[in-house]
Amino acid sequence: MSCIFCKIINGEIPSNKVYEDDKVLAFNDINPVAPLHVLVIPKKHYESIIDIGEENMEIIAHIHKVINKIVKEKGYDKTGFRIINNCGDDGCQEVKHIHYHVLAGKKLDWYDAEK
């Protein structure tokens, strides 16, 4: 498979892991836009949330549980954080493997979709 995130999951490409279990991997983004910029991805390949059927939607809940765990361990549950999931070309999804960006550690600018 040519998916860069699948290669990271398989250990073909190194990453700075923040969390890992049998369902997900979380690692530091190589181009961070905040002091904390972690990507949380399911180990099973799904291109986007649209590709996850109702019978597999529990992976999204699990991803959010992992995000809660990460921000609490880092202390950002007190100051705030942002979760971003881009879907498809118009949503600016660069890697076609569902992933969540978790940003924290500074006052984040307000997001304006018109920019």
Please name the defining characteristics of this protein.
alpha+beta, five-stranded antiparallel beta sheet, HIT family, subunit A, 115 residues
Description:
The chain has a 5-stranded antiparallel beta sheet with strand order 1-2-3-5-4. It has 115 residues and is an alpha+beta fold. It has 3 helices and 5 strands. It has a single domain (4-104), classed as HIT-like (HIT family, subunit A, 2-Layer Sandwich), CATH 3.30.428. Strand 1 (17-20) and strand 2 (24-28) form a beta hairpin. The protein starts with a helix and ends in an 11-residue tail after the last strand. The longest helix is centred in the middle third of the chain and has 17 residues, at 58-74. The model has no long low-confidence stretch (mean pLDDT 94).
Query: What would you call the structural class?
Result: alpha+beta
Percent range of helical residues: 10-25%
What's the shape? globular
End-to-end gap: 34 Å
Global Rg:
14 Å
Number of continuous helical runs: 3
Number of domain units: 1
Active site: 99 (tele-amp-histidine intermediate)
Keywords: Hydrolase
GO molecular function: hydrolase activity
Domain HIT: 4-115
